[in-house]
Structures
1.
Amino acid sequence: MDVELLARIQFAFTIAFHYIYPPLSIGIGLLMVVFESLYIKTKKEDYHILAKFWTKIFALTFGIGVVTGIVMEFEFGTNWATYSRYVGDVFGSALAAEGIFAFALESGFLGVLLFGWNRVKPWVHLVSTIGVFLGSMFSAIWIVVANSWQQTPAGYHIVGEGLMARAEITDFWAMVFNPSSVERISHVWLGAFLAGTFLILSVHAYYILKGRYVAISKKAFKITLVVATLASLAQLVAGHASADGVAENQPAKLAALEGHFEKEAAADLYLFGWVDKEKQEVTGLAIPGGLSFMLDQNFETPVTGLNAFPEDERPSQLNAVFQFYHIMIAIGMFLIAITLMGSYLLFKKKLFDKKWLLWVFVFTALLPQIANQVGWFAAEMGRQPWVVYGLLRTDEAFSQAVSANQILFSLILFMAVYTLLFILFVYLLNKKIKHGPYEEAADDDGNDDRPLTKEISEVVTG
Amino acid sequence: METVLGIDYPTWWFLVIGGLFSGYAILDGFDFGAGAWHLFFRKELSRRIALNAVGPVWDGNEVWLVIGGGALFAGFPIMYATLFSSMYIPFMLFLIFIIFRAIAIEFRGKEKMLWWRKLWDICYSISSIMLAFLLGVVLGNVLQGIAIGENFQYQGAGFFEFLNPYAIMTGITTLALFMAHGAIYLLLKTEGRLFAKLTFLLKKGMIFFMVSFAITTLYTLLYIPHLSDDFKSNPVLFAVPVLTFMAIANVPRLANKKNYKLAFFFSSLTISLLLVLVAVELYPNLLFSTVDPKYSLDVYEAASSERSLGIMLLFVAIGGPLVLGYTFFVYRTFRGKVKLDDHSY
């Protein structure tokens, strides 16, 4: 296999794995802040217990996020040296801001968040929780700014030629607020909120169904459902804004996402379909002129299609890009439907009687994860053949000095160690969920010294 | 060229990175050092206490790596790209071990079986040792020079070229340095039998460090002449190695007096001064080319534009005190001896 392909596989594998965790941390972090604030305000122990319980799970996702994140930073240099030289001047300041303003804040307060429950005053602890949460939100800002710059470069000029060429920053704020960053940051944040809230919904739905920690789980479920409903609705707006931005700034990518070939013609909106790249056909169910309508509120407006671009400036994996994008949208719609239905039933006070719906919530935890993954795959594969849109091609960006054997070696090691890491994650998550929200676990010899709160006596007696 | 206090931006950024790397080496240094000693502790409780001495802080310490790496990428992208792609294998191994170490720390306490804990103890200790060693290996390669040719392309051949004798020697020295440093950290965090054992281990660690450091120094003077050029042309700089030796000598002296707090300070100072020594040896170069000196990268060739550096220096001026502030806050919260509780590993 050639170096470029291996480098791309390794990057895709390590970033996809990494991206399981930060969204969970951000989403769970939001609810930790909510639970802990409620505890400080109401002094009700239940919220304290919920905050502590989800902090433990947060610790797990955060830890894995950190170690797999270091890999991402290093890989820019190891596998994408030409790219790093090219973008370092621009990309670097975003990464430096991430490190100094976001990541240090996050990790600095993490120690207090995790180990400081008994060592600092409750409000100091809440400040630490908020610090960690804000840090993770800021991290997302800077990373997405850097990525958005690759999609829609702004605030730079090119210096030098050939292998010596590089982008230099001319206007920092134009770089930060490049044409796609605001809507993409919102889109990513909301995706993260959905990933976190749906995990929380899943776990508490499971407890309710199993008759464990029922009262506390109902409280948690209600609060989290409200957040999830708002996030899934807001995601519709943010997602639409993102797509509009792609249409404006990256027409070739939009054409690939939607499977639109004709140079300038009204475009259909496919609900699902299959793209045949050779025949330039999409087979599936479409709203005629739908895409034109979405972009311009007019079914007739022509949309630039793939054929308007030279062959070597179009994404090559058209069907994959199309499918990933449509899976993401389908999941988004499903999340809106299920949260609205849940909220309606909650309002009618019937939610916890619907066992089937709670079961749906148990398994839905996977869907925002899948949507986050496929969404990024669509965004990054749709940008091809460019690594920096219109400026630097992917096949010119990898490290010339690294051989295929070296990458194969590291790729195999990563697969091995990430498999172990994933097993660890699932094992620990399962263990923490089984253990439940209460601090004191059942002793090994079976003595349960938990206080007999109402919900436990419910379980014990019936 | 723009200057602040008479120092140009690339040189400022060189100093910032030096500061970040010092911070990282001091913090993750005791962390790796403590891990390297781990198998010397025999009892389960001792191992647990030793692990929990770094428990609340190891994650935060690695932040310095992320920031240091980011700062290198941002300020000297050409150096970053060239070094990381040239030293592909050691960096990849470093990543694998840093993940593996995190796995070991997390996994260890989750089951009560003795074999389970022993298995993860071994993984934890070996990865700590390898991480310290690999950091030293990369440093050794940087000091010695790398086969960079035209267009910043690495021309070295072979999978294991990074493992040359000098790099192995700097790797061992780094390991020894971190082990001594880690032993002092653990002395601050433990009591009783484990404490007594550590006083004994620290002596061994110091001897290990002195011997390997002496060999590395001799090697450097004899075989890597380009590193002492700066000293020949500017004798004032000779103060740096003198101060370094004095800091090193202070560590066993204070340890004998049982003043471990101050010993830890001097051990940290030693690490900083050793990096200052490295900086002086390198500056204004960042990477020596062993192919032809004309391909060497100095801070000006490797740096980002003045505008970019100016923005980032502003970030550091604002963010730096903040980072120091909450690092201090965290260490103050967890000061004193390790007490195991429900939240421990």
Note: The CA atoms of residues 85 and 141 of chain B lie 13 Å apart.
2.
Amino acid sequence: MIRFLRYLKFELLLAKSALLTVPGFSATVIATLSVTLGALICIFSLNHLLLVKSLPYPNAEKLVVVQQSYASEGETYSGSQSAPGMLLWYKNQQVFDKFALVFDHKQLVADHPEQPSALINFITPEYFSLLMPKMHLGRVIDENEAIDTHQAVVVLSYQAWQKWYQSDADIIGRKTMIGHVSYKVIGVTSEHFIAPANRYNEAPDLWLPWDYQGMDVNHWGIMTRALSSIGILKPGISPQQATPSLGAMLNEKYTASEAAEGGDTASAKILTLNEVIVGDSSKTVLLLLSGVVGLLLIAVTNVTNLFLSRAAQKQRTMAIQAALGAKPNHLFIAMFAESLILSVIAGALGLLVAGWGFVLLEELAARQLPRISELGLDSATLMFTGIVVVVLSAIFAKLSSRVVNYDLLQSQLQSSGKGSGLQVSKRTRNFLIAIQVALATLLLAGASVVIEKALETALHPLGFNDDDVYYLRVDRPKGANYSPESLVEMNLLTLSIKKELENLPQVKQVSRSIKPVIFKGSNSMTLDDRDGKRVGSFAFNMVDHNYFDILELPIVEGNTFSEQKDPRYQINEIILSESLAHELAPNGDAIGKVFQLQMAQPLKVIGIAKDYYRPGMKGDYGYQRYYMPYAAFEDFGFDIKLTPGAKLSRETVLPLLLKLNAKLRIRTVISHKNQHADLIYKHKLTAGLTIVLSLLSLLLAAAGIYGVLNYSTQMRRYELGIHLALGAKTHRIINMVLKESLYPVLLGMLISAGLSVIIFIIVRQQVNFVININYIGMLSVVPIMLAVAYIACYIPIRAAISEDPIKALRNE
Amino acid sequence: MTHENVTPMTATKDRVSKKVIIEMKNLTKVFSTQDIETHALRGVNLSIYNQDYISISGPSGCGKSTLLSILGLLDSPTSGQYFIDGQDVSDLTINHRAEIRNQHIGFVFQAFNLIDELSVFDNVALPLRYREPVMSDTDIKAEVLASLAKVDMSHRCDHKPNQLSGGQQQRIAIARALVGKPTILLVDEPTGNLDSKNGDAVMAMLVKLNEQGMTICMVTHDPRYADMAMRKLHLLDGVIADEFTVNSAVSIESHIGEAK
């Protein structure tokens, strides 16, 4: 071992000098490996985090979650939980050592100037005794704030404390208004405490005692996914033992409740907290891992080719070493030293790329994948990187030293230079090129589809004018209900708000609307025909008469609504989008038709509005929508057209609202442009990333083809020297070699075409929607790939024939 | 100087008392392709004695390079026996052959075959890096400096080969061949890439080394340099067609000195 290390040390010095003389080779290997290793390290870390690494809590492996399942008419429903069921377990269970209830809900931090929306965890005290967070300040919610004590206290997360409370060191004991209640701050969790996220992978900002969750905890029919539990079973009790007793307890009370019908049953299921948090993400991350392993295989193939070429270049040096007594393993170590230096540099750069990947993942997938905020370069990641670097170095060294024929090395030392025997067969070289071209073409063809779809969404015109238009969303005041009197009162309030907003100097027009014109997610409501027969469920909005003016969305037929001045108006008009009008009245006679909402009052079609595009919505359905006159059914919304270049902020709007009603809270103020930018951000990012990956694939393919052909050309130097010596013009030689080299390139393209068809057939069988392929986009890959292959072929040939023929003949 | 002035001078050497260090018995080498068999060596019998200075000459294709490659264990014979210091080396493993090359054989090539990326010091040290048991860095340094001193190149330790003239590079190659204290020096056309002045200097160095006790076997086309050896082998069609032994020692240095 000492001998190996001593020799390696010497070879590393030699390799360092040697690699400086071949900067193109070194840079290509490092670039190829660093990007690929970066992706691999990033996705490995993600897999390790979700599949191997324990949750960051004491006794993490023992933490469990108990869930309710309900069966009715042969169907089983799980996920949503009833509060009475949870409280039943909380108060009566005998199997848990500790059992905590958690309800997550968003509320506004009302005494903050911007009234930010905070994710609250309403918890019982066991929550903190199970997770045992370190505290930055103060204490956790404990038995003093147990259920039914109604102690209005709050624990802040470190991030919320920084973000909304200016890192106030004297925060403990102070009051803060969350929603409509004032709470005393009793603690701030440590910066490093990572609380279990909710079903949207959002971490809580604040913790409040369970008593303030505001649900109807007595009605078995009200179920929500926002409700969950965390517990730790008593010693000696397994989940299998605990489940029947919990299920029986739940079933007994549920079947006796007013919500259950005959034959309905309820049962319990115990999962580990880790299983609940990871959920289906394990499949996603394993898929990602298989993807990057595939990318690594392509990169390894390419880099191996480069090392084969390098081995050909190094034959003279190796021959000298062999003549002086170097054994085959010495030559392996010599190659290993070079590959180790390059792999270590690539590994270090790969760690940087991975660090960037963590940020990107957090940006892109924080809502899709759990525990993303925990991603980082830990010891497991560093160890993995080290192992991969050494293994890759050994693979490159082994494969490239294997093609060096030790017995033939002596021919390299003969001054007469009789050429060197081809040590990788032509068939093998053609195979390597064809496979690389096939994989790269396939990857590029797939990428072209992704890029096209992403750009189509990102660049699609909206169909309305979003310049200088803002959307203001205001929470309904506490105490408002849905009685006719309350509704009239709320309508009046919205009209007052509208008037106040219109008085602002920068405001040109205001329309009320219950939803923004474009937003993440969807809202739809069933529409029936005059006879009460359902015609479909479509997106809808409730808007004022000037809504279409503000958005410059033309009414192509009929009229807009009449202006609402009396808050006691009846909703009896409807406007359809062009697509919906075409769907419901293909003959073009939509105007005057009557529809209704779930057998409510009839709605007469008075106008048809031009379609507009909502990013992310697919097919005709995305364009089909209807509009009704505004009513304050949900939170209040306002589309506000400003003077050109003007801005609208919470600070401007809030005083107006508070003047009208002290209970009003702003949920959002956002320009439509920003809303649109948010919606298409992921698509633009996807397009950008795919373009980068495509360029990387092209680079990898070019490097791979260059590697093989460079090796091939090195092997043919003597032959090319003879051609030149005999008077062959360089262009003839270039044509000759290019023709031979392009054969495997074309073969690779044919293979990729075959693979594309197979993949298309398989995917079409697996998914239930129509796959639209843009063949022009896919075919555009062919000339790109040909051009890249041509350049990769041309460079080594050019280098080989640009020197004096005698050098090739003398094997110098 | 001109080569016409270089002539052998005589001095008696008692070969009977010398030890045989290399012995080849009926050695053949056949290069085969699918259709053709080329007989490069056809039964070579050769004994090389300690402190011999042998030149091998002959027309192109006569088997000189093949014989030198087999002598240096860079290639294996097709048949026959080959002994170095009494040990049969005709059928050794690759690793064993490498060990013997490292310990018993020093090579000097026409094209010098120095490694461009290494300094002069590291080039000369290279055989010692492969030496088993492992030598300490201190010992390696001492041996390298001593070897460079023999060829008067100590002052070029830190240079790279491409910073040296052809003659200097060949002297470095000789230092590298000597550093492992080999049993025999195999020299392949040592002056082929040099001008006459540097060629003569290298030849003078080889003669001096022989006088100091080094056994040398040299392939050369140049009859004047071949004449400097005490044993001249003439190879023709893969067999030793003629052997001429000079009974006297050679005083080349003085001869070259006169020519200058």
Note: Residues 122 and 302 of chain A are 55 Å apart (CA to CA).
